[in-house]
Write a structure and sequence with these properties.
Chain A is an alpha/beta fold and 247 residues long. Chain A is built from eight helices and twelve strands. In chain A, helix 6 links the parallel strand 9 and strand 10. Chain B has 496 residues and is an alpha/beta fold. Classes of the chains: A alpha/beta (247), B alpha/beta (496).
């Protein structure tokens, strides 16, 4: 279970998160919606531990373990995965090599045995087929020369391989056409189960018709201002974030 | 607070633990008197029982050297070297013997360095017949040079069956004087430059390779250089000749103990390739780089040059330069034969206070000669990295081609990268291309890797290896794996 209490954080001395309270019970998928600049991406970076995102107060624990005092790689080993809004390019680093290095790092962190190149390829190829990714994407540099949709699918592939306990998807739907959106959603849905939880950050209700959330939260100006069931997303789509804040 | 502890640990790791080849071997040594004069040159020549012509050759070089000035054009800075304050000859008391009789201390030293001196059972045509993966590996013939002498050379008899000569240059002087006399100094003449000239006067040992006509060398040849003795310079000389149609791949590795003083390493390497011959020369240079404050380390002033004398001959230099306090080195190709090919692939890393001024010279003389230069410079800490290259095309080199690519990667904001390409073209039909980039390891790249579970050090290693990929893939397989690890170790503590 992810439990966030009174979380405040600043970037470049400017307070962005102004006291977030949020609980995502194990096995649930929650959506976070909100206008630009409300702090959605900041929340995801703070949970993943990016430098420059300074926590000034509050707590965030995952399965009872304090996340905020840990290095990003330690959080990854705990099972926290962030699907980036803008996946980063690593020139010259082969995608297969990167994926295997990441998978083995996480497996080491969990006390599992590492996969050799052949074992890895078998697993990776199977997942890629499910995501309709051409096999040559394994040979190319990480995200180098990938289209926007390919980059997002590569994020979902990484998620599928690393099998996280908590996935944070930061606007994974942006830049995806309908077909790609379905494929990416299938990737997330395949992971759903009693040991998996997810925080899906999005602007649009569209994604939530494919990844149906258990709860929807509205983030505005650094605070969760509304929470509700999946129907809240539809209401927001119809009336916008400017709707009365009374619950 | 966590960050402070981490920083302290990182600094400790960088200053103490990282150079794992820094031990020294305690062994009875024979020294020349300290300093340099004509008597020392005679001493070295006498120690090696050399013929008169070679002593004359050395003395001529010494006389030239006395009149030469140390070059000041490289962009490296160091206090003036006192050439009288060093030993020019240091050798284990027990002379070189057969492999079975090598001093156990030396065997231990090389085992610790991971260099196999023992020959594995080798049966032509049935490699890989063994049960364990270790048996399946291609053996590598090694010439081990310890300070001033070669202490062992493996697989000599096996190679001799194909007519291949692989031995120390001291041995070659006695066993194959006609070849040594013909080729020594024919690529790098005695008076070529200050350090090559010094080497010509006082060179002690090194490797000699001759591959006869039409022979493809059946295994990788290698020389492993180790400086062990204090206050000692190493001046080795390597000569490789590939006769018509011969093919050889040669590797060179080097390490030294950690000492507070600076030690001089001034080598000369000469390669000769005849018609249709091909030489691949790979170096992993890992001399002691000095500590985190820039104290100690090897001054590596090396002259390496190849002559592609024959038609369609090819020489390929690949170097991974991670060590030395100062590296000054320009492995070059003189492309004389028509359609001959020269290649230079280089990775140079400078961390802490290391300085590197390195690159290549491609001299196009023959028609349709081709050259490729790929240089990757990585600077971290206070490191300074300069690529210096010359592409010269003579009027005779009709249709010559050169492609040059120089990329620099910066880690941190105290280091520097510099590119100094010289291009001299006197031929209208030649085509020359030059590309250069400078980049930085971005914070978002590191975070992306760490979010996927990689430690900061592993992330830097992965990104740097990606940056160097075009060069590393030119190395023989086993060397490439070593080199990748080495890159990472060299950069430990550079981010954070």
């Amino acid at each position: 279970m992810l439990r966030i209490e009174g979380l405040t954080a600043e970037v470049d001395g400017k307070e962005i998160l102004k006291g977030i309270d949020l609980e995502v019970p194990t096995g649930e998928v929650h959506a976070i919606m909100g206008p630009n600049g409300s702090g959605k991406s900041t929340l995801s970076y703070v949970l993943a531990g990016r430098d420059g995102y300074e926590v000034t107060g509050g707590t965030a624990t995952f399965d009872g373990v304090d996340l905020l005092g840990k290095a990003p790689e330690e959080r990854a080993a705990l099972g926290v995965f962030l699907a980036f809004q803008y996946p980063v390019e690593l020139p010259g680093v082969g995608n297969a090599n990167f994926l295997r290095t990441a998978l083995n790092a996480v497996r080491r962190g969990r006390g599992e045995s590492e996969l050799d190149a052949m074992q890895f390829l078998k697993v990776a190829r199977a997942r890629m087929k499910e995501l309709s990714m051409p096999e040559d994407m394994l040979k190319r540099g990480v995200n180098v020369g990938f289209s926007g949709g390919e980059k997002k699918r590569n994020e979902v592939l990484q998620m599928a391989l690393l099998a996280p306990k908590l996935a944070i998807l930061d606007e994974t739907d942006s830049g995806l056409d309908i077909d790609a959106l379905k494929i990416a959603s299938d990737g997330v849905n395949a992971l759903r189960g009693p040991d998996f939880s997810a925080l899906v950050i999005t602007h649009y209700q569209r994604l939530l018709t494919y990844i149906v959330p258990d709860r929807v939260h509205v983030l505005m100006a650094g605070r969760i201002v509304r929470s509700g069931g999946k129907e809240l997303a539809l209401e927001l789509e119809a009336s916008g974030y400017g709707a009365p804040q009374a619950a | 607070m966590a960050a402070v502890t981490e920083t302290i640990e990182t600094v400790q790791a960088a200053t103490e633990g990282t150079y794992k080849w820094g031990f020294s071997t305690d062994i009875a040594m024979d020294y020349a008197p300290k300093g340099l004069n004509e008597d020392i040159v005679r001493f070295i020549s006498a120690k090696k029982n050399e013929p008169a012509w070679l002593l004359e050759w050395r003395l001529k070089a010494y006389a030239m050297w006395l009149k030469m000035e140390e070059p000041t054009w490289p962009s490296v800075h160091y206090p003036k070297i006192d050439f009288q304050d060093a030993f020019y000859y240091a050798a284990p008391k027990e002379g070189p013997k057969s492999l079975d009789e090598v001093d156990p201390e030396l065997l231990k030293t090389y085992a610790k360095l991971g260099i196999p001196l023992k020959e594995q059972a080798y049966l032509a045509g049935v490699e890989g017949a063994g049960d364990s993966p270790a048996d399946a590996r291609m053996p590598i013939a090694v010439d081990a040079v310890f300070d001033s002498v070669s202490v062992a050379t493996s697989y000599k008899e096996r190679l001799a069956k194909d007519g291949i000569i692989f031995c120390s240059i001291s041995e070659a002087v006695h066993e194959h004087p006609e070849l040594v006399k013909q080729y020594l100094g024919s690529v790098v003449p005695q008076g070529d430059n200050f350090y090559a000239c010094l080497n010509s006067a006082v060179f002690t040992d090194g490797s000699f390779v001759y591959i006869p006509k039409g022979v493809r060398c059946p295994m990788e040849l290698s020389t492993y250089f180790r400086i062990n003795a204090k206050s000692t310079g190493q001046f080795e000389r390597t000569l490789i000749i590939a006769d018509e149609g011969a093919v050889v791949s040669y590797l060179e590795g080097c390490t030294a103990p950690m000492r507070d003083e600076n030690q001089l390493h001034a080598a000369v390497v000469e390669l000769v390739a005849m018609d249709d011959a091909s030489i691949k020369y790979s170096t992993v240079q890992n001399w002691y780089p000095g500590d985190a404050e820039g104290k100690g380390g090897i001054y590596n002033f090396v002259t390496k040059r190849a002559q592609c004398r024959g038609k369609r001959s090819k020489v390929s230099w690949t170097q991974v330069e991670t060590g030395s306090a100062i590296t000054w080195k320009y492995p070059s190709c003189v492309l004389l034969g028509e359609d001959s090919v020269g290649e230079f692939y280089s990775v140079a890393i400078t961390n802490n206070y290391q300085q590197a001024d390195t690159g290549t010279k491609m001299i196009h003389v023959g028609a349709r000669t081709k050259s490729t230069i790929v240089s990757k410079g990585i600077s971290a800490g206070h490191g300074q990295n300069t690529y210096r290259g010359l592409v010269r095309v003579a009027p005779t080199a009709h249709g010559a081609r050169n492609f040059t690519q120089c990329d620099s990667l910066l880690i941190g904001d105290l280091c520097g990268a510099h590119t100094v390409p010289y291009i001299e073209n006197r031929c209208l039909t030649a085509k020359l291309e030059h590309e250069a980039t400078t980049s930085r390891i971005a914070e978002d790249q590191l975070f992306y890797c760490r979010q996927r579970g990689l430690t900061q050090e592993d992330a830097v290693g992965l990104i740097v290896n990606g940056f160097c990929r075009e060069v590393l893939k030119e190395l023989p397989m086993e060397f490439a794996v070593e080199a990748q690890k080495l890159l990472q170790i060299s950069l430990e503590g550079s981010v954070g």
